[in-house]
Sequence to fold (234 residues):
Amino acid sequence: MRLQGKRVLITGGSRGLGAAIVRTFAAEGAHVAFTYTRDEPAATPARSFKVSVLDAAATEAMVDELERDWKGIDILVNNAGLSQNLPLALMEEEDWDKVLDTNVKGMFITSRAVVRGMIRQRSGSILNIGSLAGERMLDAPIHYCASKSAVSGLTESLAKELARYSIRVNCLAPGLLEDGVGRNLPEHRLGDYMKHCALGRIGTFDEVARFAAFLVSDANSYMSGETIIMDGGV
Fold:
């Protein structure tokens, strides 16, 4: 129960890795709320809000509601993200904007809303979900890679800015997982990844969620501004 009593907001928590983080954090004793935009969540041990990370007004209203009810937010997990399996030659401007806006601007909007309360309480932990595609030269869509590289830079800068308020900011960059971005990979690209992965397999959502719980916990009190790669040894 390493997150006992912690108040947590997770973006994009209705499916995939986000849903695993919601379940794991709740099992670790946290009070959890999460956002979603499309998939109606099934019964979960958490509060849900149909709020886009690009809707600043709705995000502010949600954070205000949670702060009134919980008297604060201790942990933010910026998980909501988007990818498209498009080569550059077929990519339209609106494709680029949609991915960059969701994956980077969405983190800015949500972090800005939550950080104000964390500054007042002079404590907090923010975990940004990045990707191996933002850290290594992989055969992946360029707008997705660019957005996840930006997440690492955002993490470092925000960690420096917020350190004076005892707020930690880290980034977790998983490799290929059991679903999500990897589900649309052609067989030859998946095989190439597995060939270079020391553990010889893709990761699971639960493995990443359990590590995320440690990263935001008080047990990890002396790490900030870091991007941690979790890829099975690629």
